[in-house]
Amino acid sequence: MKTTVQRETQPEQATEFATPEVNIFETGEGYVLEAEMPGVNKEGLEITLEGTEITIVGRRQTEPLSGEALFVESRPVNYRRVFELDPAIDISKIKARMDQGVLTLTLPKSERVKPRQIKVD
Asked: Which domain range does residue 14 map to?
């Protein structure tokens, strides 16, 4: 998979996205991608597939706190990452799950590329 990061621009403002950290594993059935996006829940997640590119956008849902900020180390950022998928992935069977800020994408291999045993007559 190839990784690219982009900046979205709109006429009135530019929006920068942080790149979520990911882990990618290969299994016998396909690939599993885990993306860490703290502060993002299911409602703030957008996954789009266009051709062989899959784009993940996570928007943080932050509740404004009352009071004066005395010390702030984190900033409320949104996440964006684009991957080019292997043509062997069966895009009709991709599944996504979001749990505690970790997105898990299951990317199954097409049956035509999975190893199979040939019966000898």
From this structure: 2-62+72-113
